[in-house]
Amino acid sequence: MIANNTYSVPELVALLRAGDPNAFQQLYEKFSSKILSTCKKMYLPHEDAEEVVQEVFLKVWEKREGLDSSLSFNAYLFTIMRCSIFKRSRKNAMDVAYKTYQLNNGTGASCYTEEALDFEELKVFSERIIDALPKGQQKIFRLKFTENLTADEIASRLHLSKRTVENQLYKANKKLKQEFISNDLIPYDLVVLFLIF
Questions:
Q1: Which ranges of the sequence are coiled-coil (predicted)?
Q2: 113 pLDDT higher than 50
Q3: What does the buried/exposed string (b/e) look like for 108-119 if buried means 16 or more CB atoms within 10 Å of the residue's CB?
Q4: Which of 14, 94, 96, 167 could be bridged to 69 by S-S, CB 3.0 to 4.6 A?
Q5: Tell me, what's the pLDDT at 71?
Q6: Considering the entire predicted model, what is its pTM?
Q7: Pick among 1.10.10.10, 3.30.390.10, 3.40.50.970, 1.20.120.1080: CATH of 105-197
Q8: Residue 33 to residues 22, 45, 54, 72, 186: CA-CA distances in angstroms?
Q9: Over the chain, what is the mean pLDDT?
Q10: DSSP characters over 84-127
Q11: How far is it, in rounded angstroms, from Cα 22 to Cα 6?
């Protein structure tokens, strides 16, 4: 068992990469409060902030074999945290958008099931459109909107130029908008909310 404050962060990361649970515990104790504090500064409720901390360190443990002790562990944690907060915020924004749509269209509790089915249909429809995109566009689109990567990060990961990534994102967005707008089953105002969030 390793003693507290004996190892530097890079050394702890190297031990964690080898599967040392004590190194993981020390890294958790060293960084968890900092992540929690940052989440709260970003206006997450305490319970959500705690969940983000758990998600971040769960991801660290799952990906431990790929850790590089020569890179900034702090930056790695905050990248995971940012993605977790983005996904949570995006879900919350979608919930708000849907509730706003319900209010603006006079839908009450009695219509909830029907409206929920319409919204579920929208999600299934959007997945079908994304799946129909050319493989390259689909991959870039998912990296952008599922993992919240920047064009530079996507370009680096896929070994493409930033210009190529931006061009493929533009084409994918244009195709999605065309498909949404041409589908008469989905109200245009809900389409706009979906595309924004």
A1: none
A2: no
A3: eeeeeeebeebb
A4: 14
A5: 87
A6: 0.48
A7: 1.10.10.10
A8: 18, 15, 11, 18, 44
A9: 77
A10: HHHHHHHHHHHHHHHHHHHHHTT--GGGHHHHHHHHHHHHHHHH
A11: 12
